[in-house]
Amino acid sequence: MTSSPKPLPDQWTINLHPVANLTILTLFDGAGVQREIGFHPLTPPGTTDRTVGALSEIDEPELRASAEKLIDTFYERTTRAQVNADAFGAAVPDQQRLFDRLRSVVPGCLIELDIDDETLTVILKLTAAGRAAGALLSLMARWPGFITANGQADGVTKDSDGGDLTMHLDQSRAEDFLTWYRDQP
Q1: CA separation (Å) from 8 to 77, 116, 161, 185?
Q2: How high is the pLDDT of residue 1?
Q3: 163 and 129 in contact (C-beta within 8 Å)?
Q4: Average confidence (pLDDT) over 2-25
């Protein structure tokens, strides 16, 4: 049994941009922010660059099918990102308490959570400047998951820019770090 195609959310659009023999389909939200991009091969000659606010505005069945796939992909990716974010929340239900404690140990530490656009998993980003950068590096060095026998652990990146230090931890490393940190004095 086939499900009917999902409609475009209210105020969202799809831009159809033909280039050579393909069409680039770009999904925009109501604020004009790009949300998803896809491609339709073998675009017939005469296809025009246009923006549509409904699938019914796309007369060509194959191109409409590509637009439907674009919308489906957006919803699938959104669902996957939400599942991963929920899993992170379940693994670290006390994250706010841990973040507050981390800020007291590393004064001025900027703590951000984001979603990786490719893996759709949570990223924990910790940024500290000056002396706080040293405190952050010292804390990370104490965490057994930071260094492996082959060097810095996969899923952890360290960037230095002037006096700033930024640590990026992928979802599994962030969960491991915060679980370890929870038990630290």
Answers
A1: 15, 24, 42, 51
A2: 46
A3: yes
A4: 88
Q: How far is CA 38 from the centre of its chain?
A: 17
CB neighbours (10 Å) of residue 139? 20
Structure tokens at 176: 């491991």
Cβ proximity of 36 and 27 under 8 Å: yes
Q: Which residues contact 174 (CB under 8 A, 6 or more apart)?
A: 88, 92, 122, 123, 124
Residue 167 contacts residue 158 (beta carbons within 8 Å): yes
Q: In angstroms, rounded to a whole number, what is the distance separating the alpha carbons of residues 131 and 107?
A: 9
Complete DSSP assignment for 112-166: EEEE-TTT--EEEEEEEETHHHHHHHHHHHHSTTSEETTEEPTTEEEEEETTEEE
- The 10 Å Cβ neighbour count of residue 119 is 13
Over pLDDT 90: what percentage of the chain?
Answer: 82
For residues 20 and 44, the answer to whether their CB atoms sit within 8 Å is no
Q: Could you tell me the two tokens for 164?
A: 């700033």
pTM: 0.83
Minimum mean pLDDT range among 13-27, 93-107, 145-159, 160-174: 145-159
Residues 108-135: tens digit of each pLDDT: 999 999 999 999 999 999 999 999 999 9
